[in-house]
Structure formats: C-alpha cells, structure tokens
Specification:
The complex is a heterodimer.
Chain A lengths: L1 E4 L2 E4 L14 H10 L6 H17 L5 H12 L6 H7 L4 H8 L10
Antiparallel strand pairs in A: 1-2
Chain B lengths: L6 E6 L8 H14 L3 E6 L35 E5 H6 L11 E4 L5 E4 L1 E4 L1 H10 L2 E4 L1
Parallel strand pairs in B: 1-2, 1-7, 2-3, 3-6
Antiparallel strand pairs in B: 4-5
Classes of the chains: A mainly alpha, B alpha/beta.
Amino acid sequence: MGLMVEGKELETDEEGYLLDLNDWTREAGAELAKTENLEMTDSHWEVIDFLREYYDEYQIAPAVRVLTKAIGKKLGKEKGNSKYLYELFPYGPAKQACKVAGLPKPTGCI
Amino acid sequence: MSSVIKQFLYVNRKAPYGTVYALESLEVVLIGAAFEQDVRLMFMDDGVFQITKGQETTDIGMKNFSPTFGALGDYDVKYMYVCKQSLEERGLTVDDLMDLKWEDEDDDWAEKDSIILVDRAEIKSLMTDADVVLSF
C-alpha cells in the first residue's frame, strides 16, 4: 500500500505512515491529511512544521505531554493545551499530526 | 496514568553503537518518562561514550541517536549521573560530553545542567535509593 503524490507512489506502512521521512513534502502532507479526513488550516501546518523541526533536532517525535508543553512555549500559551491540539487533530495529536508530518509514531505512545 | 511515582535508575554501561543496548535503553527511558515516572540515567564504563559530543555514524550505517538525549529535559528527566572514574579511564572530561540541560518550571524556566559527575561511593548510594534499577 502506498500514497500517491503528484503521480509518484510513496511507500507507507499498514497504517499509512510514510516509511521514509525524507519522502515528505508539503504535498505529501496534504495527501496524508486527506487519509485522516483532516481539513488542513494554517494552525494545523504550524503544528506540523513544529513536529518536523523537533524531529530534525532530536530524532524523535515527542510524546503528547512534551508536544503540548513545547507548543505552548513556542507558539503561545493559548495553544499549549491538549484541548487546542485535539480540536485540530481529533484522533490524537500524536497519531494524526505525526502521520501528516511524515514521522514515525511517537515513542512512548502505546 | 498510575498515581504511584517510582524512581527508576537506568544504568548505561555499553558503548552507543555495536550493540543495541544503548538505543533500547533510550527507548525505555522515553516510555518511562512519558508515564511521568521519576526517571534518572547513569552512565558508567563505556556507557559514558553515549553522551559524547560530535558523534558521526554515517559510515557504520546506524542512526546517530545522540541528539535524542537533548530532548530528555522536555520529558522532565533532570538527573544524568556520570561516573567520574569511567571518564578519567577513557581520557575524557565533562567538556567532551554534550551540554544537556533541563528547564526548571519553578524557577522561571531557568536552564540547569542535567549532567552530574559522581564517584563510586555516590553511585552505590544512588542505586540503593532508587526503587527500580535497570541495567543496560
């Protein structure tokens, strides 16, 4: 099973996560969002960009608690709470946002 | 989430690459920390190499996971004990180690050093004080 992006098939696992995070582009992110039925807005992309930067720096996708705290610090207190993140990603910021960002599932997310 | 918080001490004694111990330990540390336990790390013997600066793994075909230690402060991991003798035996000093920090929420988010040098006697009492000691 793969993901079609601009005529090219990208490899994914059985849950639809990209196998190679270097395959990720904004277009791939948009396609991944469709598989999660997400209507992407600037607020969504802000979280996605944050996750990609976090992964670049630390080589892991953060646990939800860590993501929440870090988002609050970087993007403002009103965004650093799980209510805000769950409104954007109803099925779990870790699961859905990491998927759209082309990252592996977060460690510690069982 | 469990309401009982235990103190976990993860003792890392092996070099970062060549075996999977170091990476597996780090994974378990992240899981323990995600469950909001009191997670502390100890590096001794060749384990001190896990947190050295400037690791470069391209030629050995393994992922350089050392940047992940930098995220542990975000997970409220505040104590990383390093055995003084192990550093000395390998010709290393604390300056060869990554500058690992955590932020103290109760002190206006001041950055504090995570690395604490300890001698063998202190290691013994740290192991005695921990609820759970896991050796990798």
